[in-house]
Every structure is written in C-alpha cells, then in structure tokens.
Amino acid sequence: xxxxxxLRALMTAVCKAAITADSSTxxxxxxxxxxxxxxxxKYLDSDTEKELQALYAxxxxxVKLDQPANLxxxxxxxxxxxxxxxxxxxxxxxxxxxxxxxxxxxxxxxxVTAFFTWxxxxxxxxxxx
Length: 129
Hints:
By secondary structure, the chain is mostly helical.
C-alpha cells in the first residue's frame, strides 16, 4: 500500500475524478479533492518521498491531457491548501532531476512558476514574523 506504484495509482485516480472540462477549458473540482483528503493523507502519511510520488503521478496525468493551462497550478494550490503535500515535497519535485520523471517537466515547471514564487514569498514572510 505504500509502494510508489500504488501511490501513483491513487493520486491518478483522485486527480482524474477531480478534473472537469467544458469545451476546451479544464478545471479542478476542489470539492472532489477535499472529499478525498482523508484517504490521501492516510496513504501519503506526511512522508516527503510518498508525496513526491504523488506529484510525479500528477505531472504524468497533466502531460497525458496535453498540459492544459493552469490545471497543474490549480492542483498544486488545492493540495497545498488542504495540507496533502508539504512544502518540502513541492521543492523536491521542483528540483528533481530524475531521468524517469522528465517527460513534460519543463512545461510543468513553467506552468507553476507563480506557485513557487508565492510559496517562497510566504516562507520569507513567516520567517520575518
């Protein structure tokens, strides 16, 4: 149940269930994610490596959809807000050079630049306080 394959399948299923589309616009139904937070937390277990596997699965799902604009950012915002994925896991994903995970990584990184900028600014603010 804690294997990378299981964690990726779980995250893929949750993400697919949360994606809504009308004509060419994709959105994340955050209510669907919120309903599934308990099961994600149970299996990700606040473990950065498991959370990283979940992010890789999310990246792969977005790539399969041809990387719709803002979709990855919407997932990142929701998963961060619901405390499913830690800051450490997001940063680990951002800096990962794993050759097996490079498919679509460049476009994915560009699509979440604003998320990481916001994350760093929020971190700096909390350090200042």
